[in-house]
Write a structure and sequence with these properties.
5 strands; alpha/beta; 253 residues; single chain; five-stranded parallel β-sheet; 2 domains; Rossmann fold
Length: 253
């Protein structure tokens, strides 16, 4: 495969020499900044289960490869012009509806990330992430989740409230489903939701599947974006489930 980024050729050549398991997902990297593009390409060599299939400086140069390969994941670097903007995510999703687009951002800026999520991004990682951080984000995507840090989740809620956005819970949600949704907004994992509400973990899973179906969303992040709770649980229990990179683990419930 032709790589339009000479700085990444060495990283990709070494990667392609490695044996790839059947479950390996292909990744296309689109990043305007050469140094960041090279560093991310090198980091991907150490992420098991993923294969760098191409890296490009723009969506225009990546388009033929995207249409030919249909990668499982696109890592799209976002930032101020001339870097790609959030509306580029919509263009990728229009071309490849089944491809997961993971935004790569310089910092956790809620306005930018809100736009990215609204346009179809499944989550984000940071341009300064370590290999473990990148692996954690991609692994969460592969499991069907949405990698968003608990700090960023809080910032997004604050951002929505600061913009006077009042997203009403869907009328068809039961009181228990709304209660679980509030727990999700606080970052509670399954076991802590079960303990907090004094129900079984299997019951929690059942309620979560139902509320996702009613809201027509695939994961916690999109549920919270669509249906922002007005109140949080009264408990002062503040435990969080994090991975090694400090992200809130948002699984494919």
């Amino acid at each position: 495969m032709t790589n339009n980024c000479p700085q990444c050729q060495g990283a990709q050549t070494a990667l392609h020499r490695l044996p790839q398991p059947r479950s390996t997902w292909s990744v296309i990297l689109i990043e305007h900044q050469p140094a960041c593009r090279q560093r991310l390409a090198q980091a991907l060599q150490h992420v098991p289960g993923f294969r760098l299939a191409g890296c490009f400086a723009s969506i225009e140069t990546a388009r033929p490869t995207l249409l030919c390969l249909h990668p499982e994941v696109v890592l799209l670097g976002l930032g101020p012009a001339p870097q790609p903007q959030p509306d580029m995510i919509g263009r990728i999703k229009a071309l490849l509806p089944q491809t997961h687009v993971l935004a790569v951002v310089g910092e956790e800026e809620p306005g930018l990330l809100m736009q990215a999520l609204e346009r179809g991004a499944c989550g984000y990682c940071l341009k300064g992430d370590t290999v473990s951080g990148l692996a954690a984000a991609l692994g969460e995507v592969q499991r069907g989740g949405a990698p968003v840090s608990s700090l960023m989740a809080r910032k997004l809620v604050d951002f929505l409230q600061g913009q006077s956005v009042r997203l009403q819970p869907a009328e068809q949600l039961s009181w228990r489903e709304r209660e679980i949704l509030e727990c999700l907004s606080q970052g509670y994992p399954y076991k802590q939701i079960a303990d907090h509400l004094q129900i079984s973990i299997n019951t929690v899973r059942t309620y979560i599947r139902r509320l996702y179906g009613k809201l027509k969303v695939p994961c916690r992040t999109h549920a919270l974006l669509k249906c922002l709770p007005r109140e949080t649980p009264s408990s002062n229990y503040d435990a969080r489930s994090r991975d090694g990179a400090g992200r809130l683990s948002i699984g494919a419930f």
